[in-house]
Amino acid sequence: MARAPRQADIAAAAGVSQTTVSLILSGNTDGVRLSEGTRQRVLDAAEELGYVPDPVATRLASSRNHMLGVYTFASAFPTDVDGFYYPILVGIEEEAAALGQDLVLFTGTGGGQGRAHDKTAIRRTRVADGCLFFGRHVPEEPIDWLLGGGFPLVYIGRRDELDGRIPFVGVDYVAASAAVVERLVALGHRELRYLREDDDAPSSSDREKGVLAAARKARLAVRRIVVRATPAEVGTGLIARWRAEGVTAVVVEETDTGELSAALLAAVEAAGLRTPADLSVAVLGQPKDRPEVSGFEVPRRELGRRAVRLLVDQITASGPRTAQQIFLDCVPVAGSTIGPPG
């Protein structure tokens, strides 16, 4: 990948001298006669090339500014203390403070998903020493550009895009999901369903991989195990169909919204079924306000802390950086919604 753009590149693109570019970008044009057209050409070229001025140059005798970026691909930065991202953000703040780092929140140029994946907004993260990213999908072009320019970044969550070049701190959903199914099998369940969203994010695919691996190990019939559905499609009719098919246990994934697991639990209750007497239910990730539900808990706070440590390691590393990739274990939750088949 090409190096990060310099002022000389902007000068060539705008057809002006590098001195003119420096004056315009610094705002130091007092006493200098420059047309508005020239100024706008320079600014447009800088925007198109993704140029970001190096804040280190404005600091005294320092090669770093001790600022870490945080860029989330959610449409708005999460503020709900019970939300999925909140513990991650707490971990990020705690570890950044412990390491003497400031945090910079990047909000881009507007609202919504279009803003979140805008390559110009993502490139602006270069004003920090490095940046943490998290979201269910990777906008490959701007992330590839950052990596190619040597910019330190770390994703929160497993990423296999860009030929495995993205450093990340993720969760071992495969092993945790397999352990839940193994527990159900040990209790005597032979007919189960795994409910997941129709979205091929790595966290969803990893959960499915663990479920199927444990089912095959137990010699269960796997042809009908995986069911993809939206929360709106989960209701009492689906529960009744599964019951008619002899299903005694349902496992559901927990995403950042929590909507699918909430829909399943509501449908089970609406069908008048008791857990686990009538139907065992496990959630692959602890659902909001339901501590009694069996499954596992994602170590979200530790995700944030470890991601900060890895990012600082990337920033301070001497020599070529490696795409270090770390997996954390989930915490089993015994709960009370799993039991022997009724």
Automatic annotation (TrEMBL):
<dbReference type="InterPro" id="IPR046335">
    <property type="entry name" value="LacI/GalR-like_sensor"/>
</dbReference>
<dbReference type="InterPro" id="IPR028082">
    <property type="entry name" value="Peripla_BP_I"/>
</dbReference>
<dbReference type="GO" id="GO:0003677">
    <property type="term" value="F:DNA binding"/>
</dbReference>
<dbReference type="Pfam" id="PF00356">
    <property type="entry name" value="LacI"/>
</dbReference>
<dbReference type="InterPro" id="IPR000843">
    <property type="entry name" value="HTH_LacI"/>
</dbReference>
<keyword id="KW-0804">Transcription</keyword>
<keyword id="KW-0238">DNA-binding</keyword>
<dbReference type="Pfam" id="PF13377">
    <property type="entry name" value="Peripla_BP_3"/>
</dbReference>
<keyword id="KW-0678">Repressor</keyword>
<feature type="domain" description="HTH lacI-type">
    <location>
        <begin position="5"/>
        <end position="62"/>
    </location>
</feature>
<dbReference type="InterPro" id="IPR010982">
    <property type="entry name" value="Lambda_DNA-bd_dom_sf"/>
</dbReference>
<keyword id="KW-0805">Transcription regulation</keyword>
<protein>
    <submittedName>
        <fullName>DNA-binding LacI/PurR family transcriptional regulator</fullName>
    </submittedName>
</protein>
